[in-house]
Each structure stands twice: as C-alpha cells, then as structure tokens.
C-alpha cells in the first residue's frame, strides 16, 4: 500500500493570496472568505481550493473545478505533482483551519501558517482512493438532502 510520510502542507500544496476583485460582470464565480461573492468575466484560478483568509469565515474551505476568481479575502491552494487536489481538499476541510488563525478581533490565516502544518501523507494512489471514497459519500449525502427537501415540500 505504500508508506505514509510526515510532511508539511507546503510539500504537497502551493498557496497564493487572492487578488482584488475585478469590476467586470460575467458568469465566473468570485470567491471570498465565505464562498461565492459575485460573478465576473475574469479568472485568476482554475481547479483550486479556496480558503477564507480573514474575518469571521477565516479557515472556510471550498473547491472549484472550473475557472474562477479568488479575491483578496481568500487564499488559493493548488496541488503539486505528488498530490491529488481532491484529497488535498478533504485534508484542508478537516484540519479545523478556523482554529489556526492569528489575531483575535480580526482573525487572519496566512500562507506561513498553512505551509507549516504537518500531517502524514499517503502515497498518491492511496490519496486518489481516499478522495474517491469521500467524494462518493459526499454525493450520497447531497442526494439524500435533495430527497429530504422534496419530501418536506
């Protein structure tokens, strides 16, 4: 099955701060610290994980496969060659990043904090299998929620 290696997030994931939101209006989502803020005609990312960087939603984690814009209230995360981005998403989603911020009145999550977090990383083929299983469970949960919503209606 392969050996799991103790390593920092920086060895598997590249983090970048978002940029000021463009003024154009379009169909591409603009992500901030709390998910989609707006839509624009420009993109600064594709297939990336978005992490809330500042404020009450600091540490929130989203995954967007299609082209999108990451605003300056968020950090984008893309996988490096030795990791699976879907697995990276589940890792980041389960690290309780909202408890790793600095500051009290205005919480802030930095690239330095993210880069320094260490976990045990499985080999790539194991990452892919874990992501496949977790994604299937997420799909099942979403289907059940839709069924429950229709039953309530």
TrEMBL record:
**CDD domains on file:** RMtype1_S_Sau1132ORF3780P-TRD2-CR2_like (cd17266)
* Keyword set includes DNA-binding: yes
The keyword Iron is annotated on this UniProt entry: no
EC top class, in one word? hydrolase
The Type I restriction modification DNA specificity domain covers 3-149
Instruction: Output the superkingdom of the source species.
Output: Bacteria
The catalytic activity of this protein is classed by the Enzyme Commission as: 3.1.21.3
Keywords for this protein: DNA-binding, Hydrolase, Restriction system
List, in alphabetical order, the Gene Ontology terms for molecular function in this entry.
type I site-specific deoxyribonuclease activity
Q: Belongs to which family? A: Belongs to the type-I restriction system S methylase family.
Q: What is this protein called?
A: Type I restriction enzyme S subunit
The record lists the lineage as: Bacteria, Bacillati, Bacillota, Clostridia, Eubacteriales
């Amino acid at each position: 099955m392969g050996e799991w290696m103790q390593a920092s997030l920086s060895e598997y994931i590249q983090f970048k701060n978002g940029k000021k939101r463009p003024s154009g209006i379009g169909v591409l989502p603009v992500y901030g610290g709390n998910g989609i803020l707006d839509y624009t005609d420009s993109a600064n990312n594709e297939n990336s994980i978005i992490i809330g960087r500042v404020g009450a939603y600091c540490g929130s984690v989203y995954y967007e496969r299609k082209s999108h814009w990451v605003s300056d209230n968020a950090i984008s995360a893309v996988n490096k060659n030795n990791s699976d981005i879907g697995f990276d998403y589940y890792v980041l989603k389960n690290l309780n990043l909202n408890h790793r911020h600095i500051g009290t009145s205005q919480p802030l999550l930095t690239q330095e904090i993210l880069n320094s977090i260490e976990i045990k990383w499985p080999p790539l083929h194991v990452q892919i299998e874990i992501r496949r299983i977790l994604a299937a469970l997420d799909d099942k949960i979403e289907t059940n929620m839709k069924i429950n919503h229709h039953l309530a209606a």
